[in-house]
Description:
The complex is a heterodimer of chains A (about 110) and B (about 120). Chain A is mainly β. Chain A has strands at about 5, 10-15, 20-25, 30-40, 45-50, 55, 60-65, 70-75, 85-90, 95-100, 105-109. In chain B, a hairpin with a 6-residue loop joins strand 4 and strand 5. By secondary structure, chain B is an all-beta fold. Helices cover about 0% and strands about 50% of the residues of chain B. The mean pLDDT of chain B is about 90. Chain B is globular. The interface between A and B is medium-sized, with 23 and 22 residues.
Amino acid sequence: RKEVEQDPGPFNVPEGATVAFNCTYSNSASQSFFWYRQDCRKEPKLLMSVYSSGNEDGRFTAQLNRASQYISLLIRDSKLSDSATYLCVVNKGYQKVTFGIGTKLQVIP
Amino acid sequence: GAVVSQHPSWVICKSGTSVKIECRSLDFQATTMFWYRQFPKQSLMLMATSNEGSKATYEQGVEKDKFLINHASLTLSTLTVTSAHPEDSSFYICSAPGQWNTEAFFGQGTRLTVV
């Protein structure tokens, strides 16, 4: 089993739609969790951290479920500019992060 | 926020030559840096962990004699791809971790094409 698993997609959604991604992780001792966004041929950029209490940043909501070992990302009112690959990132501690394969999102006009 | 600068952003080299990629932390000290490789339509794969003042730690399947890593100072790590071959063509990215398990800070990436 991979340490971090994501559905690679692609998810093709119309503008204005709500889309959700999930990511599961295998190491129950994982300490911190993040969603990164990666545009084609660019480096990943932090989108948001993920907390058990959930956190929201504008149209984006992230949630962590430690019992089931998954994190989620919800994007409301999708924009064309949201088209990218979204990477689930898990920090196991000791400064070592593990990336999921990424979920590709394509927002269609 | 913390900034990591990676250079060059792209390079084309002939098969058999060596290429050096630099990764600098600009406003913080990084005792550890990570080097990743990403092939098209694949995830970032950790190649090695670079440790300041000591030998790098390589992931399974990564040839340490081919991918030389040097972390001579708290702000600079270098990856040298020796005797590059076309199959080494990839996107190489470095990152430095934040303190207290915060996020990782990435360099801009280097697209290497070996012809």
